[in-house]
Amino acid sequence: MIRVFLTHNPEDLEAYFGRALPALAGIADVVRNPFDRDLTTTELIEHAAGCQVIVAHRSTPGPASLFAATPDLVAMLRTAVDISTIDVTAAGDAGVVVARADKSF
């Protein structure tokens, strides 16, 4: 089963996922941010270990060090329009697809 890490803190989780979280849990092993705050890059690397997908809050950066340290990762999905804090070149070099989604549609 695919393993998906959600970087959203509990306050934002309901706003972004609402009813979709149970459906996602039905098709993936969902790992959630264990803190009531945004993660540091070191914490993100630690908690996303073994995940194939990261669904990232707009405040979660994607530096080159993240992609170098998460060999199982195949996709990083940003739940916002802006991906400027994601090193897309490093992601591509690591074979990770970067995509964005905005909930305004």
If you had to describe this structure to a student in words, what would you say it looks like?
The chain is α/β, with parallel strands linked by helices and 105 residues long. It has helices spanning 10-17, 20-27, 41-47, 64-69, 88-93, and strands spanning 3-6, 29-32, 53-56, 75-78, 97-100. It is 33% helix and 19% strand. The protein is globular.
* Secondary structure category: alpha/beta
Oligomer type: single chain
Order of helices and strands: EHHEHEHEHE
β-sheet strand percentage: 15-25%
Query: What's the arrangement of strands in the largest beta sheet?
Result: 2-1-3-4-5
Mean pLDDT: 93
Low-confidence stretches: none
Question: Helix fraction?
Answer: 25-40%
Distance between the termini: 29 Å
> What's the story with the biggest beta sheet?
5 strands, parallel
Strand elements, count:
5
Global Rg = 13 Å
Salient structural properties:
105 residues, alpha/beta, 5 helices, 5-stranded parallel sheet, 5 strands
